[in-house]
Design a protein that fits this description.
This protein has 69 residues and is an alpha+beta fold. It has three helices and four strands, in the order E-E-H-H-H-E-E. Helix 1 runs antiparallel to helix 3.
Length: 69
């Protein structure tokens, strides 16, 4: 069995940043319900468009194995 983990850094305006912005818009109401503020969500949206901003993507893992016959 082998497991690989992968993440990459991204900047504002990139596809990863656009994904984060879209996810946040889709969850806007729920994020407010759990305690985030309008200002925090607005600041996040601005960062996702700012090419000077850098963050890391989600950590993705993949495990591959074979069952013995």
């Amino acid at each position: 069995m082998t497991t690989t983990a992968y993440a990459q850094s991204f900047t504002g305006g990139s596809p990863w940043a656009r994904l984060g912005a879209v996810n946040t818009r889709q969850l806007h109401g729920k994020l407010l319900e759990v305690g985030l503020t309008e200002k925090e969500l607005s600041d996040f949206a601005l960062m996702m468009d700012d090419p000077r901003f850098t963050a890391m993507s989600y950590l993705m893992t993949c495990t591959v194995g074979r069952r013995r016959a």
